[in-house]
């Protein structure tokens, strides 16, 4: 083989190796930066509570579900194929839970709702070309309301804002240079401030929320 042929062959090999590496670098870099989007999905939960009412112990429990929809925005920072970022979202919710129980002679029937909430989360993922599986976790800020009747005290209506925590994971896939779609699951913990009927003097409440949603993001 001549010297010229050897040089040409070496150049061809280098070009063949560089081409997929360059494509991978370009593919990975398209995850970087600011993004915003929309999402929709479903929310379901279960609630149990131990209460003390007028000196008598008791409790209530129930399950609920509903639809959610909202918007999200965040920022991705790449360290090689690893992605670190933060995301905030705001959700409207139709979730409604029927609760029943009582304490002693008191019977309680109520409906619990969560009309809106926001999450503030960090994300950590690993990019594999146009797909990125990730884990996520952070805080939830929301609003809850409890309406119902107590056979001893009558109608009640209580509401407040609350904090709690969330964690989960998902997978996001690029549709083109700007758009990506995601599927995500979040586990939501108990609100830090429980709600109960007016006659209740103490309450130990546990609520578990499950959120499954799909979303569409646009990178700027």
Question: How would you characterize this protein structure?
Answer:
This protein is mainly beta and about 220 residues long. It has a single domain, classed as Porin (Beta Barrel), CATH 2.40.160. It has one helix and nine strands. Strands 1, 2, 3, 4, 5, 6, 7, 8 and 9 form a nine-stranded antiparallel sheet that branches. A hairpin with a 3-residue loop joins strand 6 and strand 7. The longest helix has 27 residues. It is elongated.
- Tally of separate domains: 1
Please name the CATH topology.
Porin
Radius of gyration: 25 Å
Mean pLDDT: 88
Largest sheet: 9 strands, antiparallel
Helix proportion: 10-25%
Segments where pLDDT lies below 50 for 5+ residues? 6-27
Number of helices: 1
Choose one word for the global shape: elongated
The class by helix and strand makeup works out as mainly beta
CATH architecture descriptor: Beta Barrel
What's the number of extended β-strand segments?
Answer: 9
- Between the first and last Cα atoms, what is the distance in angstroms? 51 Å
Taken in chain order, the helices and strands follow as HEEEEEEEEE
CATH classification class: Mainly Beta
Give me the secondary-structure topology.
Blueprint: H1 3-29, E1 33-53, E2 56-79, E3 82-93, E4 96-103, E5 106-126, E6 131-150, E7 154-174, E8 179-188, E9 200-219
Antiparallel strand pairs: 1-2, 1-9, 2-3, 2-4, 3-5, 4-5, 5-6, 6-7, 7-8, 8-9
Put the structure in a nutshell:
With 220 residues, the chain is mainly β.
């Amino acid at each position: 083989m001549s010297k010229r042929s050897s040089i040409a062959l070496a150049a061809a090999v280098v070009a063949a190796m560089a081409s997929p590496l360059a494509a991978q670098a370009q593919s990975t870099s398209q995850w970087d930066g600011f993004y915003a989007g929309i999402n929709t999905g479903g929310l379901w939960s279960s609630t149990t509570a131990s209460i003390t009412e007028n000196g008598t112990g008791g409790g209530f429990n129930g399950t609920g579900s509903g639809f959610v929809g909202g918007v999200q925005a965040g920022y991705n920072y790449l360290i090689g194929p690893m992605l670190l970022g933060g995301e905030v979202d705001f959700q409207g919710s139709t979730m409604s839970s029927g609760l029943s129980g009582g304490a002693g002679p008191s019977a309680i029937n109520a409906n619990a709702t969560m009309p809106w909430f926001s999450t503030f989360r960090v994300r950590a993922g690993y990019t594999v070309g146009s797909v990125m599986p990730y884990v996520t976790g952070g805080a939830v800020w929301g609003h809850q309301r409890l309406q119902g009747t107590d056979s001893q005290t009558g109608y009640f209506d209580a509401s407040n804002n609350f904090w709690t925590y969330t964690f989960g994971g998902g997978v996001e896939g690029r549709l083109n240079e700007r758009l990506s779609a995601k599927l995500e699951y979040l586990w939501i913990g108990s609100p830090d401030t429980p709600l109960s009927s007016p006659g209740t003097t103490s309450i130990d409440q546990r609520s578990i929320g499950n959120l499954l949603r799909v979303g569409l993001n646009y990178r700027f």
